[in-house]
Amino acid sequence: MGTDNGLIYIQDKSFEEPAHLVYLDAFWIDQTEVTNNQYAQCVAAQICNSPTRDYTAARDHFFSDVAFGNYPVVNITWYDAVSYCQWTGGRLPTEAEWEKAARGTDQRIYPWGNEPPNDELLNYNFTWGGKTTEGETTEVGIYPDGVSPYGAYDMAGNVSEWVADWYGDTYYQSSPFRNPVGPEVGKYKVIRGGDWQAHDRLVRSINRNWAYPEESFYGYGFRCVQ
Are residues 98 and 186 in contact, defined by beta-carbon separation less than 8 angstroms? Predict the structure, then answer.
């Protein structure tokens, strides 16, 4: 997990370092990001909150328009993601589980391997690969050449994904070997996997980001594990 050649973020520090060996118990992870159709069932059951309205009309209609039912749900908080996963009998993945599912065991840089990204492998860098006329997100599961070693789609690009852990910029330096779950407390929650706007460096499987758990954004989605 992690890398010894991380992207420098601030004050000459990389939050992706160091590379370290991690053991995880077995788990199942959703093959795709949770879609609007799936999340709508939780809203209808009065368990989940509807996605927050975004600041442009173009992004408003994604959840309510049936044409976007198979697109990843966005504009939801970390708490909303937790509610959905619990409703389905699962939970959010830990940061370590997410990276394992995206990266496998051979220290590859991207889900598909070490080949640099291109628009046939993922939805990223504002390109969309000709797979959407709307721009921004695409349907889940339409980049078969970009799947992870375990067959998980869109673990790079499309939307970034909430995971369970609190964020700690030095956590990798002292995280436990078995089933790490992140710091006990924190201000931010970890987000993994670059979204449709991200460039090459930000769609690496080792890339880490963070946000306030009550924050929602049109680039944030999630998937669940059991």
Answer: no
